[in-house]
Write a structure and sequence with these properties.
The protein is of the alpha/beta class. The protein is built from 9 helices and 13 strands. The strands form 2 sheets. Strands 1, 2, 3, 4, 5, 6, 7 and 13 form an 8-stranded mixed β-sheet that branches. Strands 8-9-10-11-12 form a 5-stranded mixed β-sheet, covered by helices on one side. It is globular. Bound molecules: zinc ion (2 copies).
């Protein structure tokens, strides 16, 4: 085990110290400016799993409509001149069985479908340490993982003494991340930071103490990959809150942050809304309802 870890470690780029503090730029830059093209990125949502549930399960205070409101499970891919970033790693079949979810297509298949070899991925952004965002521990053997300080503190500290707070966490996921820390494969971030020109991380908190979203400059403007800062469009649009939360107040403040970072409400990408698959075109023929192009000028 140690030998293979050492071998992998050599291939991983060295950890950077915390990047420069982000200075959020104005929202006026688009592809039409003709300058700064090197900071434009492609962005894709890759669906990997599904869960049927009733609407009332998705909101604190329930929902008056007795209808199905399923969740979709995604990872996201950001591709640009400065490299490729995978945001979140999903979960595998064993976790799907344990949690009563259905894998639609394994994460690796979705990535391969858009020409991405998981073995070659150098950078993975982890939005937060819930089981549906940080499983598949060995899928990216060469990657460095980007994580907020507050999330590892939350997932390894006193809050995990409470069964209720542990519900969305899996000990094996947290331990796997701690092992990556010791292998020199985690880059920690504190608040808002730029990874490369056009890609910035933003601490949101709320749903999980160290939850972060990612703002990406694309041809259609600044898109915000919200992950669980808003599970569904309804959460951010109607000011409603998903039942799993570290802080309701931070969750609601987070909606304001998402709106500030995105060029429009249509530039906010919720973490679990199946409607994302309908709003955006397939990344290429044959990938409809599976991998969609979030940077497409629709
Ligand atoms: Zn979550
Ligand atoms: Zn989630």
């Amino acid at each position: 085990m140690c030998a293979s870890r050492r071998r992998v470690q050599k291939q991983v780029p060295p950890c950077r110290t915390a990047g420069e503090k982000l200075h959020v730029e104005s929202r006026t830059v688009t592809a039409s400016t003709g300058s700064g093209q090197g900071d434009l990125h492609e962005v894709y949502a890759v669906r990997y799993a599904h869960h049927d549930r009733k609407a009332h399960e998705n909101y604190i205070g329930g929902d008056p409509h007795d209808i199905l409101q399923p969740l979709a499970y995604f990872v996201w891919v950001i591709r640009g001149a400065h490299g490729t970033f995978v945001m979140d790693t999903g979960f595998d079949h064993a976790m799907a069985v344990k949690r009563g979810r259905v894998i639609v297509k394994p994460v690796a298949e979705g990535l391969t479908a858009i020409g991405l070899d998981p073995d070659q991925v150098q950078d993975v952004i982890i939005s937060h340490l819930h089981y549906d965002h940080c499983g598949n521990h060995d899928l990216f053997p060469r990657a460095r993982y980007h994580l907020q300080d507050r999330e590892i503190a939350y997932g390894t500290g006193r809050c995990m003494c409470h069964a209720h707070q542990r519900i969305p966490f899996e000990a094996d996921d947290v331990v796997a991340m701690v092992r990556k820390v010791f292998d020199g494969r985690v880059a920690f971030h504190d608040g808002d930071e730029q990874l490369v020109p056009g890609v910035t991380l933003h601490h949101i908190g709320g749903h999980s103490m160290g939850l972060q979203c990612v703002r990406v400059k694309t041809r259609r403007g600044h898109v915000v990959l919200a992950a669980d800062a808003t599970h569904l469009y309804a959460h951010v649009n109607e000011g409603r809150v998903f039942p799993i939360t570290y802080s309701v107040a931070e969750t609601l403040e987070g909606y304001a942050t998402l709106k500030k970072l995105a060029d429009s409400p249509d530039h906010i990408i919720p973490g679990h809304d199946p409607d994302v698959l309908k709003r955006y075109p397939a990344a290429k023929p044959g990938l409809a309802n599976w991998v969609v192009d979030l940077g497409a000028l629709t």
